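If you are new to this repository, start here. Below is one unmodified record pulled from the training split, so you can see the exact layout before writing a loader.
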Amino acid sequence: MYEPIRTKSVHSMADDADFPHRSREEELDIQLAGHLAALLAVTDELRALAPAADLDAAAERLAFEVARLRGGAQPARSSVATAIHEPHLTALHQRAHALAGRALVVAASRADTAAAILAAERMDAHADATRLVGAS
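And here is the target side for that same chain:
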């Protein structure tokens, strides 16, 4: 009456050997490194537009943390500012604040104290800078 199924069901469980698996810790490392690298890119852009010693120090600490999370691989750095106009400073600080917040959430879930402290410090610094730039 019915023809029997001759092929493997698409609903069956995949073989464990079919694809590589990462641990939760490895996934969080990758995610945290990505957030910190994005924050580093925005920090480099801010440094190009409005050089400051605290931004230089933050960029070095961010680069160190990204390299640590990536097993020593140095992050890509840019020395060219993509934003040219002064009003972009507020938007860049807001973007950096949001990225630092994301990094803080991942660092906290990963229990990475050094990265969490760095992200929290950067959030505070960019929140203060946003208020200062917006007030002027």
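Two things worth knowing about this chain: The CA atoms of residues 32 and 103 lie 6 Å apart. The chain has four helices and no strands.
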